[in-house]
Amino acid sequence: MEKENQQKLQSTSNVHLTKPIRCIVKLGGSAITCKNELETINEENLKTVSRQLRQTMMVSDSSCGKVLGMDWSKRPGFTETSCVVDDFCDQPALDFSHFMVVHGAGSFGHFQASKSGVHKGGLNRLLVKAGFVATRISVTSLNLEIVRALAREGVPSIGMSPFACGWLTCERNIASADVSMVAKAIDSGFVPVMHGDAVLDAAQACTILSGDVIIRHLAEQFKPEFVVFLTDVLGVYDRPPTEPNAVLLREIEVREDGSWSVVKPTLENMNKQVEITVAAHDTTGGMVTKIS
Amino acid sequence: MEKENQQKLQSTSNVHLTKPIRCIVKLGGSAITCKNELETINEENLKTVSRQLRQTMMVSDSSCGKVLGMDWSKRPGFTETSCVVDDFCDQPALDFSHFMVVHGAGSFGHFQASKSGVHKGGLNRLLVKAGFVATRISVTSLNLEIVRALAREGVPSIGMSPFACGWLTCERNIASADVSMVAKAIDSGFVPVMHGDAVLDAAQACTILSGDVIIRHLAEQFKPEFVVFLTDVLGVYDRPPTEPNAVLLREIEVREDGSWSVVKPTLENMNKQVEITVAAHDTTGGMVTKIS
Predict the structure, then answer these.
(1) DSSP letter string over A91-104?
(2) Domain ranges for chain A
């Protein structure tokens, strides 16, 4: 009972939204980067995903089908920006459903983090401190490119790093993760884009906070209608999808109390097998309302 | 008296540092970018400044003169990173004085902000919302490049955007600007790098928060020994330095109560003239302990 109260307190603190969040989208690192090529973005996938997100988010389209890009940076090879201010004339801000995006690191950050052991902590060692700096440079570079890709497709995206937001861990679990600024950004009509990050840890000085842990925390706090995972595979399988006989789980129902079960396909004795696999990837918990 | 108490309260809140900040460095936008070329960094200046900052920050040098770079990103034209993990072996983290950096926008962000009128607010207009997104993309791109330049010279730099830190304004004045995460980063041995940014405003929905206003707030909160302004001119003059007869002010004394006077050169009747000029640039107030 006490735990329940605590959970209720936590889940309502700091969250003041004028309307609920429709969807939190997780862009898997392997879907938006080339996993085996260091720090290389999968431009084609990222563009497709950005366009699809925009179409999904829009409630009404007053722009007559023309995409009004929001990345006005200079393009390579040009001296001027691509912005055409006149296109915007006096249009009101588009009506978007409340969305937010979290992305993984893919081929960004992992090299720096694993070489230096940032996840194991110990900032008193120069290698770990340098690795922390190098990891943040790599993952914030990726974040900027994703924000730009979304903005080019007309999504009002805003990069927000967990580190700068003041998120902290203790023994690698989230200890403090204020979402009030994320809520303010969403209420102002923006789409916050967060990412797996190197953060400070009260017990071991530093660690890596993964995109999946971020998603779980955000889902607990905001209780969105949907949490969508975009990966390089088709969905959630009952075992690693490269294994023979892996079965795609078409629908997973998650109840208010956080328990869940597979709705489709309806196979007997599969539940336990799935539970282990999903838990190993740490993407479950009381977090998903639906996996679409 | 009440005002004094208020100031004292404000200046001690949230700031818990193990040792005081030695210096806040302002990198003027015109010093690190090519002011007349859109989104172009002055690479040479930035490299020189980064190296000099490192030398100034270091208390002791245990690295035998070898610079251990902390930007391990892939370089253009290479498929591997430049990181040599062995160089770090088991060195303890270097002893740095507590520093932090704030930079202006120079040729980044201004175009996007002025075209859309972000500083005047009004997020219900699509142009302003797009300009807000575009401005943040531009200034965070610059921030990333400055963090990388510092890291390449061995400075453990960490980018922190005022927006993500939850800084808010009301009628364009700072209304909420928690520095606790900045303090934690400094205490962990990092050099936070903040920047002028587009932020949410309680009265007009959004505005631009300038690097100079950020510096003033940080100086009030942290009371550093020094605040250093690196600009494209030699220092603070008694009038715009392009005017004939402009006199470089070699030393400005700022007293505890925030009043200040010019120590060198000692010219009669110059004080009033200076006061007007400096106030017009909004970089004074109770903020500087010394201008070096």
Answers:
(1) PBPP-B--EEEEE-
(2) 10-58+92-232, 235-292
| pLDDT (average), residues B19-33 | 91
Nearest to A147 among B92, B126, B137 (CB): B137
Q: What is the CA radius of gyration of chain A?
A: 20
Average pLDDT over residues A58-81: 73
Which residue of A80, A111, A188 is in closest CB contact with B200? A188
CB A10 within 8 A of CB B44: no
Calpha distance B151→B262 (Å, rounded): 36
Query: Residue A41: which residues within 8 A CB-CB, separation 6 or more?
Result: A32, A33, A34, A142, A145
Class of B10-57+92-232 per CATH? alpha beta
Q: How far is CA B242 from the centre of its chain?
A: 24
Could you tell me which CATH class the domain A10-58+92-232 is placed in?
alpha beta
Chain B's closest residue to A134, CA to CA, is: B71
How many residues are listed for chain A in this entry?
292
- From the CA atom positions of chain B, what is the Rg in Å? 20
A203 has a pLDDT exceeding 90? yes
- Collapsing DSSP to helix, strand or coil, A192 comes out as strand
Which residue from A81, A83, A138 is facing B73, i.e. has the nearest CB? Answer: A138
Closest chain B C-alpha to A53 CA, distance in angstroms: 17
Taking the C-alpha atoms of residue B42 and residue B40, their distance in angstroms, rounded to an integer, is 7
- Percent of chain B at pLDDT exceeding 70: 68
Q: Is the pLDDT of residue B223 over 90?
A: yes
> Do the Cβ atoms of A68 and B148 come within 8 Å?
no
Cβ contacts from A onto B, under 8 A: 213
Q: What is the pLDDT of residue B267?
A: 45
Closest-CA distance of chain A to residue B88, Å:
5
